[in-house]
Amino acid sequence: MLASSSSTRPAIPLAPVLSASSFRRAASAPARTVLDAGSYRLVTSGRVAIALALRELGIQAGDTVLVPAYHSPSMIPPVLWREATPVFYRVGPDARVDLDDLAARIDAGTRAVMVTHYFGFPQDIAPIRALCDARGIALVEDCAHAFIGEHAGQPLGSWGDYAIASSMKFFPIYEGGALVSKTRSLDKVRVHSAGAGFEAKALLNSLERGFAYGRLPGVQAALWLPLRAKSALWGMLKRGRKTPAKSLAPDSSDSSFNFDPRWLDKRSSLFARSVLKLASPARIQALRRSHYARLDTALRGLPGVRPLHARLPDGACPWVFPLLADDPEALCARLKAAGVPLTRFGYPLWGGMDADTCPNAAMLSRRVLSLPCHQELREAEVDWLVQAVRKAVLA
Ligand SMILES: Cc1ncc(COP(=O)(O)O)c(C=O)c1O
Is the entire prediction scored with pTM above 0.90? Predict the structure, then answer.
C-alpha cells in the first residue's frame, strides 16, 4: 500500500482512481445508471450539462430558476449564463426537498426547478414531478451525486425533463458529465472533440492519478520513460511561451466552481467514454454500498456524530458517506491531521444567496463531512479509514 509522508499512513484517494480492477465484472445483479433513463450526450462536466438543459428549455433573461438552497456553487453560473435569476428553495434537515417551500416560491417568472439527489440518496421525486406538471414548469433532475441507482423501479434521471450527471464522481476519469432526457429530443445538442491535446490530457491525467496512488505499477514502469520525456517537453514548451498556454481541460476538472461556455459543445474524451462503457455499474454499486455499510456500522452511535441518513435505500449507490458532526471544525482538523481524505459538499454555498434563506442548508453546509466510499478503495484502505475516523471522533 502506498504510504504518504507519515510512514504508516496510507494515501487514500478521495475519488476513484484507475486500477487493474477498474474493469472487473460484478457477480451481483446489473445496476442501472442515469444513461439508462433516456437519450444522452456525454460532455465534460455536470455544470455544462446544466447549462445545456437550461439552453434547451429556452431559459432567458427575466426568467427565474428554482435552485436548492443546499447546493454546489458550480450549479449557479449556468443559470447566470442564461441571464436568468436563481431563486433558492428550502431543504429539510436531512436534505429532503421542502415541497411546500418549493411550491410557495413558484411565480409567473419561474421556468424551471433543479432538484438534487444529494450523496446518491433519491429524493421523493414523484410529487415534485407532479408539482412541476401542475404549475407548468420544467424539472432538471440533478444526478451529479447519483450516476448509478434506481428509485421506484426506474433509473434516477427518469423524472426530469432533463437530467444531468457528473461522471467524474463515479468513474476513474479526469472529466465527464452527461445530459440525459427521457422525453425530449437531444438532436439539437451537438458535441465534438475538444482536440488532441485534451484527449491526451484526459488519458494521461487518469493514468498519472492511478500511479500516484500506487495503482497500475506495471503500466507505470512501462511508461516511465515516455512520461518523463513528455514532462520535460511540456516544461520546455511552457518556459518558451510568451503568453500563458490555453488550458487543455475545463476548470471543472480542477476543483473549481467556474463555468466556461467554451466547453458547451465539447464531447467528453474518448478515454472517459470508453471507461463508461467498460466499467461495470453493478461492481461500482456493490462496492460503494459495501464500503458505505462498513463506515455506517463503525460510526453509528459514536458521540458527537451521526450518519446523515438512517439507512441507505435499496437501489441507491452512494457518492460518499455523509457524516453529520456536532463540532465539524474540530473533527475536520483531526481527520485532516490523521490523513483522512474528506470533502465538504456545499461548503461554501453560493455567495449571492441570502444566508437566512434556509437554516437547514446553512447547517448542512457547515456540519456534513463526507468520507470516500468509492469502488477503488482497497479493503486495507477501508480498514484504515474506519479506524482512523473512529479514533478522530473519539479523541
Ligand atoms: C449537486 C451538484 N450538481 C452539479 C454539480 C456540477 O458538476 P460538475 O462538477 O461535474 O460540473 C456538482 C459538482 O460538484 C454537484 O455537487
Answer: yes
